[in-house]
Amino acid sequence: MMNITANSENPAGGNIARIKGSNEPNGLVQETAMYPFVRNMLEVLAPNQGKFFEQTQDYYAKNGITTAHNGSTARNTIQFFQKQADAGKLKIDLVALAGVSDLDENLADKNFVWKTYKNGFKVQGTKIVADGSPQGKTAYFSQPYLTPVPDCEKDCRGLPSVSPDELNEMFVKAYARDNQLFIHNNGDGATDMLIKAHEYAVKKTGQAADKDRRTVPIHAQFARPDQLAAFKKYNMVPSFFTNHTYFWGDVHVKNLGKKRADFSSPIATADRMGLRYTNHSDDTVTPVDPLFLVWSAVNRTSRSGKIIGKNERATPYQALKAITSNAAYEYFEEDSKGTLTPGKLADLVILDANPLTIETSKLKDIKVITTIKEGQTIYQRPVQ
Predict the structure, then answer these.
(1) In the chain, where does the domain assigned CATH 3.20.20.140 lie?
(2) Which helix (H) or strand (E) holds 58?
(3) Domain spanning 66-344: CATH superfamily
(4) pTM of the entire structure?
(5) Strand (E) positions, the chain?
(6) pLDDT by residue (tens digit) across 162-197?
(7) Residues 224-233: pLDDT tens digits?
């Protein structure tokens, strides 16, 4: 259907895995090689888009979410979201990130509105993908993986999805127009690229390196201590992904070694350094479940029951900040959301237990009773 053959070349930043000893595809496509398949799948889903949109909102509300985030978003999907919002079909606020492939067109479009809600929907900034996933062995590291990597014989450090020069120019274009950037970076090699792109762009545009632009390294799972210091220096807001410690913690120890695995999504260190950080589920990579996310940040327990980085365990309060007040800060919404404060929106949840006092091992078992958006109940748990 996609016409991938032995003659198909690997796209930049991607890989078409081959049957050993031949050039025949073995069925595995990685990173940018996967993009055509994703576009095809979205086209198949398009006829039911309206129904899926409503069901997804109900799913988020059931899990206590009042502001949702959509990652890399094409222009036609942005138009769909805005039409839904204008028709009064948004139950929660929706923040989208425009895809970087549309960056030039979006920046040139005088009718394209950034950072401003209209009927509960806004486009906050632009999403860039700089590397792949650590569990898929496509995250880009400065040091090699410890286990075999498909179609790689030596110095197997993963795949950057863009070249350093391409990333530099993306940063320049965005910074010159005050466009907030959100960059997918898992491996520390991709994080190095991100930091260098920031330094290049501020020099090129003549801007202050620590300007309050709130660039967001998304995942930043294996950021080193020196990279966390750079985030702090440049007022970046890393968004960690602690669910990995449960779902792939054992895999990371095997593929990357205990030292790197233990420092994944280092919330405790980030907090001590004074960083503003968030935490996310990356749905559909892991399920939307904020209380499970809190549990994973606090316990860092893998599927096998091992502790992945005891010293990076967050406190329950730190874990809650990462999905409330810090999340509002990431979107420049700290004046209207994130805390229960007079004058802010009445966006809140009622839970069946107190996450600050319950036994930490039971955090994931807390249930949402009621979700309230701007004073209106949008979810009520059925009486058991």
Answers:
(1) 66-344
(2) helix 49-62
(3) Metal-dependent hydrolases (3.20.20.140)
(4) 0.89
(5) 14-18, 25-31, 67-73, 93-99, 121-129, 180-185, 216-219, 239-240, 278-279, 348-351, 368-373, 376-380
(6) 999 999 999 999 999 999 999 999 999 999 999 999
(7) 999 999 999 9
